[in-house]
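chain below, 327 aa
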Amino acid sequence: MKIINFISRWMAVIILLAGVIAMIFPETGNIIKASWINWMLGIVMLGMGLMLRLDDVRIVFSRPQDVLIGNVMQFFIMPLVGYLLTVIFRLPPDLAVGVILVGCCPGGTASNVMTYLAKGDLALSVGVTTVSTLLAPFVTPMLVWALAGTMVEVDIITMFLSIVQVVILPIAIGIIIRHYASSFADKVSAYLPAVSVIAIALIVMAVVAANQNALLTSGITILIVVALHNLMGFLLGYGAASLIDLTRPKKVALSIEVGMQNSGLACSLAHQHFAAMAMAGVPGAIFSVWHNIAGALIWGRHRGNENENDNDNQNENQNENEDQNWI
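prediction:
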């Protein structure tokens, strides 16, 4: 278990090292095939399904307004910011499509860990991640078509089916296993965070190795764009939550949900649907590295005022109980 805890704790460093190794030794692409990306993402999503509990689903129905607000912010802020950045920086079509793909994807499961570290509303974070992931087959293809349709042909139906295949189906299998073999799921769940870290690290390695030469020429520009995309997500997510006067734990949770994307899915979609565009998967790979580092630096140390958190959480728990009694 020490190894498992070590891998989970140093997630950002491990993913960064994977990218660096792939840059220095691009021949790793001969070992870690790009064709493995879908399988590796499927493993991550299977883990998400295995870890979903009844309480995680209950939050969606007990606090629908909060979850709805989070999903509207998720699918409005990041796609729009991503598109604007491609225009401002005049990115070539392959990088532009990759940035837009990242923005149009649902929240990533790492956001739940970051919300816990920042003492945000963890239940809300899990609820928003779950719903945005389930909405992704419908919302993501439509958003990509709307924002990138003038740059490249976007097959909405095929993209819908691929998201169902690599996201929804593994989650469904995980939920079924948890329902019928809960003791097995509990035992496996202890290893899932580490498995997810390794899978994401391998996805990053595969994408970076395949695009090493192109990264050397445009790496600084795309790194700046990815960093701005992520940081603007954090900032605008927190700002939007503040405008509607939410409690601090909610503001933290929604800020992290907006800023941290399922960049592994962006890499998978780029590989499946935009393979002719060599750099389309690169923004997703860089985002996978960057958002974990930025999240740890910003939120891992930003605990806020303890008394304020305690009061907000007490009020939130009271509201949850009232909502559940009403249901």
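The mean pLDDT is 84. The two ends are 40 Å apart (CA to CA).
thats it, cya
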